[in-house]
Amino acid sequence: MAYEAVIGLEVHAHLLTHSKIFCGCATAFGAPPNTQVCEVCLGMPGSLPVLNRKAVEYALKMALATDCTIAPESVFARKNYFYPDLPKGYQISQFELPLAEHGHLEIKVNGQAKRIGITRIHLEEDAGKLVHSEARPVSFVDFNRTGVPLIEIVSEPDMESPDEAVEYLKGLRNILLYLEICDGNLEEGSFRCDANISLRPVGAKELGVKVELKNMNSFRFIKAALEFEIKRQRANLSAGREIVQETRLWDTSSNQTVSMRGKEEAHDYRYFPDPDLVPVRIDHDWLESLRKNLVELPKARLKRFQAEYGLPEYDAEVLTSDKALADYFEATVKLFPQPKQVSNWIMGELMRELKKEEAGIDSCRVSPAALGKLLSLVDTGALSGKLAKTVFEDMVATGRDPEAIIKEKGLVQISDSGALEALAQEIIDANPKEAADFRAGKTKVLGFFVGQLMKKTKGQANPQMANEIFRKLLA
Amino acid sequence: MALSREEVLHVAELARLSLRPAEIEIFTRQLNDILAYVEKLQELDTTGVAPLAHVIPICNAFREDEVREGLSLDLALENAPAREDDNFLVPRVI
Questions:
Q1: Which of the four CATH numbers 1.10.1370.40, 3.20.20.30, 1.20.58.410, 1.10.20.60 does domain B5-42 have?
Q2: Which of B70, B86, B91 sits opposite A138 (nearest CB)?
Q3: Given this model, what pLDDT does residue A439 score?
Q4: In terms of CA atoms, which chain B residue is nearest residue A21?
Q5: Which site among B13, B14, B63, B77 would you substitute to test the A interface, given the most A Cβ atoms closer than 10 Å to its Cβ?
Q6: Is residue A384 over pLDDT 80?
Q7: Which stretches of A29-161 are DSSP H helices?
């Protein structure tokens, strides 16, 4: 029997506030353990949480950017469970009345556009960090992360393939980065994803038994875990075995999902409205001022890149799908106003180099100013396109200025017609047969002559001039 | 509605309480008494009354996003059942 996958995703995104969601402790990543804690986030009796206005605003921005319906009034609830990373014995979250619902995000896979529903977006606090001892049956707890504001973004089970899931996640992350409300760092856990995945016979209406996947801290792992899980579930179903509803972890050492053994206690969180917090009411003016001040989002920027810079849709899509890349492009175009040329270089040379180093544009050593200068040099004919690529590789590796590299390596293009003519004549004299061929109408040998000249000048001859000179001398 | 013995044990488990047999009987009775008392509210006609999440009629009690000094490391760890270096130390749960 043929099966199809049904995937729904839960994303947790750290909001970039300076202080925690319910207290004034700092949220900076990487501080020494337990140095960003207070009575509130340690859950000491008698302490009271007070909601960070900025956290609400950031969550509202995301809700607006994903076309959600924003609740006029939302309520915080206690999610009760015991775990050592949760000092109060409950997590403050939202349950029945979340901040926003019924949004959507458009994705594109293999040129096909698809709308993925967003069930809800709500605010909650993060839990602490546990480090398990290798040697002893103990765990170390660091509560710095406890109370860092999160938005949880829950999707509808609208995705059918790992590729769609990854595109959706990249789309969400990109919007968060455009809004500058989350740094989107999967490795550090400021953008986390859990996946629900089930299989059902193709065309069936009813959903199959689902498995929850966790511990996937890169897009690569998410894709691999979903692919593995589809195979595993398909094999089980084909063999007539039932799927067990459970949580499975992606294990990077064995490249498979493994059952999170241990007591799989039925979730019974006994949610109830948190009496320590009053409801949040979003009035019309507040929402409208946020809507009015919303930054340009990827979709709008894509359209603008096509209209303002005359870029093909594909270029505009690639560039705007990464805020840093789009910023880089615009900064370069400001200095070298030939958008298609800039786009070609970014999408070709630059992205190839970034891929080689497995780095993002943020860590690229070539500044937009340096790339602009390099392209200007090519444009004025001071540097051939081929040499520009050599210079660019050096720029990527060392971060040096293109002119300095050209000077040091002696790569300046030879555009001195006298010098080139003298060399060209030498080549013609040394190759009388080819010269005769050319004169007899075999114009293809021109390439041979130009090649010889390039060899003699170590690639520095201005190729256009070389062509002209040979045509003139062989006429 | 009356709580069964099983429900009481389930609630106890969620609260990480271990009950002696005699206590199970006592708590089942006491919890049922409380529920019966509160159940009186069901007699009220609440048609057209919006659900209430908070008894005080205010909303939007915010603080601005400003960092404030928290507790010192030693003070934060003073109540820890066990401490090792700068961490709370707990029995391993996984």
A1: 1.10.20.60
A2: B91
A3: 85
A4: B65
A5: B63
A6: no
A7: 53-65
